[in-house]
Design a protein that fits this description.
Largest sheet: 8 strands, parallel, barrel
Number of strands: 30
Number of helices: 15
Radius of gyration: 27 Å
Strand content: 15-25%
CATH class of one domain: Mainly Beta
């Protein structure tokens, strides 16, 4: 190689403290130091580059600024830190670049993208792009009060979105909308339906669109498919200004194998484990981070902090937590390495997750971390100082699978599977649960929510309305994947838009009206959200009527007046004289009925209210005689006058 001189080495962003903290694994703002940063130092404009490659012999930065010459701009190694850096004059925003790494092992040479790049080329091109992240946010009001919006006692109803397929532009070869194009349409839709938060499936850069973002290559870059970084900021800003929170899917559990990215970065297994029994994920054909390496922990935790800080995200949903916790996850006997105690628990990953949550909640008390954890691992949402993992909330995958298994059965057989509905209450308060009807359940031949429902068309829609009402009445926060809110017939497919034309049909508009009203009631009634994570917020009336496939329970708020009674009929037979034990005397107002005509139902109901009679039933002193509609749910609320001085309650 010829001698390389055009890099200036006396301009640096990295202090000795930065290097020490990075190597110690406790530097959690690496995005301010590593990567490409535009500098204007005493009129000397250019870009400072820094990359971690401890096993490199030489490292160069190459790009369109030097005709992609591999060996003309050499970086300098900072002592024993493993970081290579240098300042290149004249390089500014929009410059494409890569690192050319010459390993000290086996003469391995490779072009690599910047692990800390803020912006990258659109796949299949792979270059990193020098970029600044300046943006004038207008969400001060939201940021000042989001602690209340994310609180455990707050109503949290999440709309899960895949940006590339939510709504497309058919007139332009069915292309996906940009961040800015989708912003106002998405805000309008989410606000109209009353969801409190949007959860975006991974927006971090990924090479294979069909991975939905879960095979990440750019842990600091929103995908270029839909626009520039500031365009994504604009989308978040628009949601915030309308009072809607933003949760981002984030994937520290595995990463893409592509040669240009993190894998075998400097001729060694730098980010991943070297042994494939630890470093390769057999089910996803991806690489697994080495959570025991200090610098890898700094890299990942810095990424989490980055999205919360720079992009004003209100929470992170951490994907694949179960795969991180177990060394034998997805592996057969003999294909995994036990921990130091001979067990299957991944001690290093457990420590990483605890530290991740500690750092996030220390720096951002008003955000939420959510675990996608599908096993019975204990105390996922309990503080780390008492042995928990420290997450704020956890997806209740058991509820999702049990409920969908039950609701997809022909009603004639449901009485034999009644425990699918009741089992959850044995563990419902062991964690802070979110009830997800997620993207995973409407792909790969599983059918859309509506398609899962048994019976004729009327029964399918009635069952879907019943499912939504059952979810909103249960303890726990809520999540609905896009398309479910209007009864999408087809499975979700990432290459096409949702079938928005269905909103022209009455039955589908009925589903939308119901979801809107469920969100309204959920937010308005403290009984439905204040004590989601406490057993004092729930009480069975009757959980044993398997023969009639019926359920009834009470939800309670913190104040004595906040009481709501929910009754469910899971068979397509109306019950006009159904007696239900009443938790209190007085007049109960019917505040929601999934069989109402505006939702597409038959219109059976209780004429707006029903009064409790002094007739004992279900172990109560009073009872209600109600009409329970077919495949229907009815919510009742005790009228406020029952709590006035001198009332009979």
């Amino acid at each position: 190689m010829k001698e390389a001189k055009p890099v200036i080495h006396n301009k640096t962003l990295l202090t000795d403290d930065d290097l020490y903290l990075f190597n110690e694994g406790t530097h959690y703002r690496l995005f301010e130091k590593l990567g490409a940063h535009i500098l204007d130092n005493e009129g000397d404009k250019g870009t400072h580059f820094a990359v971690w490659a401890p096993n490199a012999k030489r490292v160069f930065v190459m790009g369109d600024f030097n005709g992609w010459a591999k060996d003309s701009h050499e970086l300098n190694c900072r002592g024993q830190s493993g970081i290579w850096e240098g300042f290149v004059p004249g390089v500014g925003k929009g410059t494409k670049y890569k690192y050319y790494i010459c390993s000290r092992f086996e003469d391995y040479r490779v072009e690599k993208v910047d692990p800390f790049a803020f912006y990258t080329e659109i796949s299949p091109r792979t270059a990193s792009i020098v970029w600044d992240l300046g943006y004038e946010w207008q969400d001060e009001q939201w940021m000042s009060r989001r602690a209340h919006q994310n609180a455990f006692e707050a109503p949290i109803s999440i709309y899960e979105v895949h940006l590339g397929s939510w709504m497309r532009v058919p007139e332009e070869h069915n292309r996906s909308m940009t961040y800015r194009e989708v912003a106002h349409k998405l805000v309008e839709h989410v606000y109209d339906l009353g969801f409190t938060h949007v959860e975006f499936m991974p927006v971090m850069e990924h090479p294979f669109y069909g991975s939905w973002g879960y095979q990440t290559t750019g842990y600091y870059a929103p995908t270029n498919r839909y626009g520039e970084p500031q365009d994504f900021m604009y989308l978040v800003d628009c949601l915030h200004r309308q009072g809607i929170g933003v949760i981002l899917d984030w994937v520290p559990s595995h990463f893409a194998k592509d040669e240009y990215a993190l894998g075998f970065f400097d001729g060694t297994h730098l980010y991943e484990h070297a042994d494939p029994r630890q470093g390769v994920h057999p089910e996803w054909d991806s690489l697994i981070f080495n959570y025991g390496r200090n610098e890898v922990r700094s890299f990942l935790i810095s990424s989490a902090i980055f999205w919360l800080d720079v992009y004003h995200a209100d929470g992170l949903r951490v994907d694949g937590v179960a795969s991180m916790l177990y060394l034998d996850y997805g592996r057969k006997e003999g294909e995994w390495i036990p921990n130091e105690h001979g067990g299957r628990e991944n001690i290093q990953a457990i420590d990483f997750l605890r530290r991740l949550n500690q750092e996030i909640y220390t720096k951002f008390e008003d955000v939420v971390t959510v675990a996608e954890e599908s096993t019975a691992w204990p105390m996922v949402t309990r503080p780390s100082h008492i042995g928990g993992l420290g997450f704020g909330m956890k997806w209740d995958m058991g509820w999702m699978h049990d409920t969908l298994d039950y609701i997809s059965k022909d009603p004639v057989y449901r009485k034999h599977h009644h425990d699918r509905l009741t089992f959850r209450m044995l563990y419902a308060f062991t964690e802070n649960f979110i009830l997800p009807l997620s993207h995973d359940e409407v792909v790969y031949g599983k059918g859309s929510l509506l398609r899962k429902m048994p019976g004729d068309n009327w029964q399918k829609f009635a069952n879907l309305r019943l499912l939504f009402a059952y979810m909103f009445a249960q303890c726990g926060k809520k999540l609905v994947f896009m398309g479910g809110e209007f009864g999408q017939w087809d499975e979700w497919y990432h290459e096409k838009s949702l079938d928005w034309h269905l909103l022209e049909l009455d039955q589908h508009r009925g589903i939308v009206r119901l979801v809107r009203d469920l969100n309204r009631v959920y937010k308005k009634e403290p009984a439905l959200h204040e004590l989601d994570f406490e057993d004092t917020g729930f009480e069975w009336i009757d959980c044993n009527d398997s023969e009639q496939s019926a359920l009834s329970f009470v939800r309670k708020g913190k104040e004595v007046k906040d009481v709501l009674l929910a009754v469910f009929n899971f068979i397509p037979v109306p019950r006009p004289n159904c007696r239900i034990g009443s938790p209190r005397a007085g007049v109960w107002k019917e505040i929601l009925n999934t069989d109402a005509r505006q939702y597409g139902g038959s219109g059976l109901g209780n004429l707006g209210q029903v009064e409790a009679e002094p007739l004992p039933y279900h172990g109560r002193d009073h009872s209600l005689l109600i009409t329970l509609p077919p495949l229907g749910a009815v919510f009742f609320k005790l009228r406020e006058e029952n709590f006035l001085p001198g009332s009979k309650t």
